[in-house]
Automatic annotation (TrEMBL):
<comment type="similarity">
    <text>Belongs to the IPI1/TEX10 family.</text>
</comment>
<dbReference type="InterPro" id="IPR024679">
    <property type="entry name" value="Ipi1_N"/>
</dbReference>
<protein>
    <submittedName>
        <fullName>Testis-expressed protein 10 homolog</fullName>
    </submittedName>
</protein>
<keyword id="KW-0539">Nucleus</keyword>
<dbReference type="InterPro" id="IPR016024">
    <property type="entry name" value="ARM-type_fold"/>
</dbReference>
<dbReference type="Pfam" id="PF12333">
    <property type="entry name" value="Ipi1_N"/>
</dbReference>
<dbReference type="GO" id="GO:0071339">
    <property type="term" value="C:MLL1 complex"/>
</dbReference>
<dbReference type="InterPro" id="IPR011989">
    <property type="entry name" value="ARM-like"/>
</dbReference>
<feature type="domain" description="Pre-rRNA-processing protein Ipi1 N-terminal">
    <location>
        <begin position="136"/>
        <end position="237"/>
    </location>
</feature>
């Protein structure tokens, strides 16, 4: 090795040495007098960065999307939080161009094996859907719906359970129209599969309830799981009802279209309005695949009604038990079961109301198939009215904490359940006979109790009470007056007294619904006379003109007043003439709700009010009415004064 080193030294010495003069001092200093140009990052490059909190470095969008699929739990959760923080910071608009990949990555978290990732993905999706406009989400909604269906049908029970949280996000953030059109039928089928399975025997039903085995095995776990699933099913059905109501309102505002029928006398418009197809591309392309509306409703009823009956048979107290009070789980389950049945009936009745031939085949089939079992299971074999076991103090505190997460059980008196049951019995038995006399007597006795204790009812319970009163007093009134005339008269008197005394709350339009119900009843001569006529309705008819002194009046109420005048109802017309001075003074400020608000329609509504006095001009004090007319000529606009004068002189 020493010889080799010496050889290298000789080679180094043999090299040519390039020696030159040294540089002067100062020439080896870096020059700073050069010009620079500012580097600008373009906008699309800036937008791809996501802000990070807690002092962490920023992630660009591509890196965040890749981390959503990372094998490490912390990387996946951090990526979801970064996206959520970016949306909260106001960068949601910057993400619209990448929604396909972003929603794919976030929605895939619903199938993650780790519960923390699933919960973080739901939170991120909630914030993202809240920050984005609906038009931006519509083209990619099928991605979220596909992952929702996969989660609902997953083999892991924990993923199935968390899929309900994803559905809660969609119910809160996605419009009901979009959810109803795109995925309602599929989601309902998945709900049914979550609590039942197909049975292959020859029994009357084709589904069988399943028992959920998991943490805390036992009957209570199964009941709570079914209630959680059925509660979301109730919310999906409510979206269908909202969509149908919106469609009906649009159809009513459109011009009238009459289809030719050789068997009927028909009246046609001069011009047929141009039909505009407002459906989106998804609806047009999927039209052939989707079933008809009546087939869908038939499928819902066939699958759900037997399951709801079987569920209550398992949950309800056994007949041999001395204490027939319901526990908390049974009361909550009953609440959801009855609400779902009521929604099914509303869907069926809405569908039948839109049919031109006024068919009632679907409702008749429901009564023929399920009426006997329903009444036997929920009414005859049970201790009606239902009541819940009183809760201990510590249980009450725990129930208040969980109130937002569990369905309302209707309180210890189960008022909501009992009132919904009244409405359902009226749907199943619209034409009762002597066999149902005692059953309806029990229901009417309970309704009268609720009317006497109206001030203790909540707004939701009063809404259910009004729906039950409509089914009893209006829809089934003619038949029930033949069976329970005394109790029907008592219920009508209590209803009128409560309305005139203003015991109904004005929240959620409860008082308005009661007024509309009473107006519909007094317009039907057979019901008006059946309930007692003048003696029964004097208090209400005398109060009715006072509604014209308020800032607004409903169009339905004004129509009822016109009908009463044409029927020459002396009680109402006398009260109207006595209030004539105040009515004329308020007519310019009075608004008629439920119609158009143009200036032309406003004057037409004023003429409708003035037309009431054409029928009532011969009632009351004629000299007082003439004095009122002169006062109107001095103080009111010429259009109103001249029209009223022409009414009084017209023969």
């Amino acid at each position: 090795m020493g010889g080799h080193h010496k050889k290298n030294l000789r080679a180094e010495k043999a090299k040519v040495k390039l020696k030159g003069a040294k540089l002067p001092k100062g020439l080896n200093v870096t020059k700073t007098d050069f010009k620079v140009r500012k580097i600008e990052i373009r906008a699309q490059l800036k937008e791809s960065f996501l802000s990070a909190s807690n002092g962490q470095r920023q992630l660009n969008l591509k890196e965040a999307l890749s981390r959503l699929k990372h094998h490490n739990l912390k990387f996946r959760t951090d990526a979801l939080r970064n996206v959520r923080d970016a949306v909260k910071a106001g960068q949601a608009g910057h993400l619209i161009g990448h929604l396909n990949e972003l929603l794919q990555g976030i929605a895939a978290g619903a199938l993650d094996i780790e519960q923390e990732v699933r919960r973080e993905s739901f939170k991120t999706l909630d914030v993202l859907l809240e920050g984005l406009p609906v038009e931006a989400v519509v083209p990619f909604f099928h991605i979220i719906a596909a992952y929702l269906r996969c989660a609902m049908t997953h083999v892991q029970p924990s993923i199935q359970e968390d899929s309900l949280l994803l559905l809660d996000v969609l119910l809160q953030r996605v419009p009901s129209r979009l959810l109803a059109e795109r995925s309602a039928s599929t989601i309902i089928s998945n709900f049914i599969d979550m609590i039942s399975r197909t049975r292959h025997d020859t029994q009357h039903t084709n589904r069988l309830l399943t028992v959920r085995l998991g943490q805390g095995q036992g009957q209570q776990t199964t009941i709570k799981w079914r209630t959680k699933v059925l509660l979301r099913l109730q919310q999906i059905l409510s979206t269908l009802l909202q969509q149908n109501c919106q469609s009906d309102s649009r159809a009513r505002t459109a011009a009238r279209v009459v289809h030719y029928d050789v068997t009927k006398v028909q009246h046609y418009n001069v011009l047929r309005p141009q039909l505009v197809d407002n459906r989106d591309l998804y609806s047009i392309l999927g039209e052939r695949v989707r079933k008809a509306e009546n087939e869908q409703l038939l499928g819902y009823v066939e699958q759900l009604m037997p399951l709801l009956h079987d569920n209550w048979i398992e949950v309800r107290p056994q007949q041999q038990q001395l204490n027939q009070l319901l526990n908390g789980d049974a009361a909550g389950s009953l609440h959801v079961l009855l609400d779902i049945m009521a929604q099914l009936w509303q869907l069926v009745l809405q569908y039948e109301a839109t049919q031109q031939d006024s068919t009632q085949e679907l409702s008749a089939w429901m009564r023929q198939t399920y009426a006997a079992n329903f009444v036997r299971i929920f009414l005859k074999d049970s201790n009606y009215p239902y009541q819940q076991m009183p809760l201990a103090v510590n249980q009450q505190n725990n129930s208040k904490k969980k109130a937002k997460m569990t369905p309302a059980a209707g309180g210890e008196l189960c008022i909501a359940q009992n009132l919904t049951l009244v409405q359902l019995v009226c749907h199943f038995w619209p034409q009762p006979d002597d066999e149902q006399r005692d059953d309806y007597g029990c229901l009417l006795h309970y309704i009268n109790q609720c009317l006497r204790q109206l001030s203790t009812l909540t707004t939701d319970e009063q809404l259910r009470l009004v729906a039950a009163l409509r089914a009893l007093l209006l829809d089934n009134g003619a038949a029930l007056l033949q069976l329970q005339a005394h109790q029907m008269g008592t219920a009508m008197q209590n209803c009128i007294d409560a309305y005139v005394d203003q015991q109904y709350t004005t929240r959620e339009g409860v008082a308005t619904k009661v007024l509309n119900l009473l107006c519909l009843i007094v317009q039907r001569v057979e019901l008006y006379n059946g309930y007692g006529g003048k003696e029964q309705f004097t208090k209400f008819l005398s109060y009715l003109p006072q509604l014209l002194l308020k800032p607004s009046v409903a169009d339905v109420t004004l129509t009822a007043m016109s009908t009463l005048c044409r029927q020459q109802n002396i009680v109402f017309m006398t009260a109207l003439v006595e209030s004539a001075t105040d009515v004329f003074a308020n007519i310019e400020r009075l608004l008629v709700t439920g119609g158009s608000s143009t200036e032309e329609s406003r004057f037409e509504n004023q003429k409708r009010i003035l037309n009431l006095f054409y029928h009532a001009r011969n009632c009351g004090n004629a000299s007082k009415l003439q004095a009122t007319l002169k006062k109107v000529e001095r103080n009111s606009p010429e259009s109103i004064a001249s029209y009223l004068k022409s009414i009084f002189i017209y023969e």
